[in-house]
Specification:
Elements: E1 2-7, E2 10-15, H1 23-30, E3 37-41, E4 44-46, E5 57-62
Parallel strand pairs: 1-5
Antiparallel strand pairs: 1-2, 3-4, 3-5
Length: 67
């Protein structure tokens, strides 16, 4: 199964075999924290535990803190 990943300079199709593959798994693969990243699945905000389906588009957005 495949999904599209978009994050900073990444715009690629990635494969996954585990049907229980989640947004958390993507973040872990990239060494990213859910505290600093917002995930969108097919254009909708989603949570870390959301399952990724074949053909999904996953877009990760870096949260910017300021003061």
């Amino acid at each position: 199964m495949k999904y599209s990943l978009k994050f900073k300079g990444i715009d690629e199709i990635r494969e996954f075999e585990n049907e229980n593959f989640t947004i958390r798994d993507v973040l872990n693969e990239l060494g990213l924290s859910a505290q600093t990243i917002v995930a969108k699945q097919n254009g909708e905000l989603t949570i870390e535990d959301s399952l990724i389906n074949d053909g999904d588009e996953i877009r990760l957005v870096q949260i910017i803190y300021g003061g």
